[in-house]
Amino acid sequence: MKQKEYYIRNIQYLIRTAEEKDAKRLPAIRLQIDGETENMDRERGEAYIDEAGFKHIIKNDAESLNNLFLTAEVDGEIVGFSRCEGNMLKRTSHQVDFGVCVLKEYWGYAIGQNLLKESIHWAEFNKIKKIKLSVLETNDKAIKLYKKYGFEIEGVLKKDKRLSDGNYYNTVLMGKFID
Questions:
Q1: What letter does residue 100 receive in the DSSP assignment?
Q2: What CA dihedral angle connects 108, 113, 118 and 123, to 10 degrees?
């Protein structure tokens, strides 16, 4: 995708396709984001991806018609990213899994929303028929945003995540079918 510039509430940022050079900064950003919220599947440090791992992901995503890796950048620094990940299996090649994360300092600037919008545009252009995602039941803002963009609740995984308070929470499965 072509990079796009946004200016929201006195913050200017770019959304663009991830490049190999981003792999150097992405491990630290992912670690920070994982430690700032319990909305992610991981706790800080779990399922760690190093620079080489991110280089591999970025390279594979760039070569695949069913994958997209986007970054959001403020003043040359990555503040969030999203991925659409598909596969080449005939029965499921029409769909991708979407995930997004943004540094807490940059919540409220529509960065996640714009990463989602660009991912939807990409999916439409590439004739992807379905985008699916999972979201923690307590993440009301995200669920509201996804519904705004045409996602529907397709199911609930009961007591799927145990958070720091020791309680179990449901994961909401959502999908958007693209005509």
A1: E
A2: 160
What is the residue range of 58's domain?
4-128
Q: How far apart are CA 87 and CA 64, in angstroms?
A: 9
User: Is residue 132 a contact partner of residue 92, using CB atoms and an 8 Å limit?
Assistant: no
Render each residue's pLDDT in the chain as its tens digit; 179 residues.
889 999 999 999 999 999 999 999 999 999 999 999 999 999 999 999 999 999 999 999 999 999 999 999 999 999 999 999 999 999 999 999 999 999 999 999 999 999 999 999 999 999 999 999 999 999 999 999 999 999 999 999 999 999 999 999 999 999 999 98
End-to-end CA distance of the chain: 21
CA angle 74, 75, 79 (to 5 degrees): 30
Determine phi and psi for 60, rounding to 5 degrees. Answer: -60, -45
Structural domains counted in the chain: 1
What is the spatial distance between Cα 96 and Cα 166, in angstroms, rounded to a whole number?
A: 32
- CATH of residue 47: 3.40.630.30
Parallel, antiparallel, or unpaired for β 130-136 and 95-102?
parallel
Q: Cβ(30)–Cβ(101) under 8 Å?
A: yes
